[in-house]
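Renewal narrative, Specific Aim 1. Our central claim is that a sequence can be written position by position from structural information alone. The example that follows is taken directly from our test logs and has not been curated for this report. It begins with the structure tokens describing the chain, in the order in which they were read.
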């Protein structure tokens, strides 16, 4: 089987993480989230974590060179050889080019880019109700509640709200997305791999569309 590299595209709060986890599990490949990798570094107080923290809390992007190095490092592990669902990367045209170069080394390329489309007002509501587990599982107080309030279904640890999910920071992150990440819609459209998905539907319906799209490619 040829390796399957998938890039999840969409604004903050579109549901990339939620869908990427389900998709990776369904396809038996890894889920690589740069946001999760940065948060892990933050928790472990690594140099990379300290560097990333100021950018993350301000809702800005971490510089490209730092981000690309972290992804190259992740891809050097053997579990990425079968493919990956990339979530939150690439986020700039420079990162997209770096990814193309990286995949060339694997004799591969980006196969499909599901673009999860959701209007801005919905994003703010989703992010202000987002509850996260330490391990990166994603809940929503209304749309995907845990069985017990503020407790992870799987391991029973407390859930938390992300520092950067405050409404002021969310609005800035959406601007950053529009300025720096939205150009990737064209980038992947021109390569013929973009597939638009209506992200306003319920989680299971979005996933059904996503599976359909991926199976067709
Ligand atoms: P992203 O990774 O794109 O920022 P997430 O997957 O973290 O998005 O989802 C953001 C929030 O919205 C989470 O609280 C999640 O539970 C919720 N969510 C995700 N998909 C949907 C959906 N289709 N309908 C309603 N809420 C959703
Ligand atoms: P969301 O799920 O809301 O889209 P992420 O968890 O993907 O957010 O990212 C959180 C923060 O981590 C971003 O606001 C940014 O500061 C940093 N980050 C994550 N991925 C990247 C990336 N590819 N390039 C630069 N910064 C990133």
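The sequence written for that structure reads:
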């Amino acid at each position: 089987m040829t390796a399957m590299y998938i890039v999840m595209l969409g604004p903050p709060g579109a549901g990339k993480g939620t869908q990427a986890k389900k998709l990776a599990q369904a396809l038996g490949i890894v889920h690589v989230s740069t946001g999760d990798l940065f948060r892990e570094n933050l928790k472990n107080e690594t140099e990379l974590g300290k560097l990333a923290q100021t950018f993350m809390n301000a809702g800005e992007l971490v510089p490209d060179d730092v981000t690309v190095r972290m992804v190259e490092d992740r891809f050097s592990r053997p579990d990425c050889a079968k493919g990956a669902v990339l979530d939150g990367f690439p986020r700039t045209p420079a990162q997209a080019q770096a990814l193309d170069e990286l995949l060339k080394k694997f004799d591969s390329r980006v196969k499909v880019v599901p673009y999860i489309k959701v209007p801005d007002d919905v994003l703010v509501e989703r992010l202000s109700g987002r509850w996260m587990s330490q391990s990166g599982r994603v809940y929503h107080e209304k749309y995907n509640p845990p069985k017990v309030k503020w407790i992870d279904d799987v391991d029973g640890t407390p859930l938390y709200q992300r520092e950067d999910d405050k409404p002021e920071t969310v609005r800035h992150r959406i601007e950053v997305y529009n300025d720096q990440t939205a150009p990737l819609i064209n980038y992947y459209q021109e390569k013929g791999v973009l597939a638009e998905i209506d992200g306003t539907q319920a989680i299971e319906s979005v996933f059904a569309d996503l599976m359909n799209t991926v199976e067709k490619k």
